[in-house]
Amino acid sequence: KSVMITGCTGLICSAVIDVIIRWNETHPAKIHILAAGRSEQKVVKRFAPYAHKDWFVYLHYDAASENTFPIGCDYIIHGASNASPNKIISEPVETMLSNFMGVKRLLDFAKEHDTKRLLFISSSEVYGESVTFPQNEISTPLNSRVPYAVVKNAGEAFLRSYHKEFGLEYTIFRFFNTYGPKQSKDFVISKLLAKALKNEPITIYGDGTQSRTFCYIDDNIDACCKAAYDNLFVNDVVNIGNNNETSILDLAHLIIKLTGSKSDLVFLPPLKEGDMQRRLPDISNMKTLLNRPLCSLEEGIKRIINSPRFQI
Fold first, then answer.
1. What is the pLDDT of residue 66?
2. Which residues are annotated as catalytic?
3. SS3 116
């Protein structure tokens, strides 16, 4: 069995690789990780201890380039995409084109090389500003407008179409707000933690009542790997997240308390786009996969603060 992984320096796919490596003695798999550009040095450093293994292969590749994928694999996990909020706002056209081309080229490759299943890292952003809660994989309409979300929505539609026309099997994981020690400082929990630990002012857009359901990375990855290894939710969609709502204002207060910070809160006007008022997933499918309680927000933040991998 072999698996190809794109986006391997991101929070999600790098954690997936950790799980596959940990499980490799009992669930042998040849791992092909793909990276390009600035992420290459991170990949080489991050996975250096495994470089000599005959089941670990590092490949230079840019999913949106004109090059051909270098090798066929039984399974593909596609997590590569430009998800930086700053990039999405400042360069929406390039963000859409590069992300879309990555999905399209990977699907063509999977079709041509008889890939058994493609596991696609989608996003809660495809729901847009929902009017029904909790957000269900089947019954909740997709109402995405921001470029990043539009491409994720299109990627999902392509997966269904490739399955219908070519028989390519898939699983779609719609990730809600994920957090963990290695997350980029562009995202809310890592950004607020970095500010709090430096006693710097913490910025709140709007009145802070907009809510999110934060899910610790270990819960997300355990659910995804369970679906992959046990062949569950084939040609289906799974919300991956938590269902405990927290306002951004309450999150800021919790982080200040847990860090003992002296940071002040600074309120700015609401963002013009992309800052949905509320997210609340139906995680019935994820609970079936995990069959255990999820990590609480307070415990997850404590794990980040105490992790040697977290850097402010």
1. 57
2. 148
3. coil
The structure's pTM equals 0.90
What gap in Å lies between CA 235 and CA 32, rounded to an integer? 23
> 3-state DSSP call for residue 46?
helix
Q: Is the peptide bond prior to 147 cis by the omega test (within 30 degrees of 0)?
A: no
Separation between Cα atoms, residue 189 and residue 285, nearest integer Å = 25
> Which residue has 């269902």 as its token pair?
243
Could you tell me which residues are beta bridge partners of residue 254? none
Residues 239-288 pLDDT 10s:
999 999 999 999 999 999 999 999 999 999 998 766 788 999 999 999 99
- Measure the CA–CA gap between 271 and 204, rounded to whole angstroms: 10
Token readout for 176 is: 């809600």
The total number of residues shown for the chain amounts to 312
Among the listed residues 35, 40, 309, the one whose alpha carbon sits nearest the alpha carbon of residue 180 = 309
> Of the candidates 6, 15, 7, which has an alpha carbon nearest to the alpha carbon of residue 217?
15
Torsion of CA 238, 241, 247, 252, to 10 degrees: -150
Residue with tokens 């907009």: 210
How many other C-beta atoms lie within 10 A of the C-beta of residue 74?
A: 15
How many CB atoms sit inside 10 A of residue 273's CB? 12
Helices (H), the chain: 11-23, 39-46, 85-90, 92-112, 147-166, 188-197, 217-229, 248-259, 284-290, 297-305
264's tokens: 């002040």
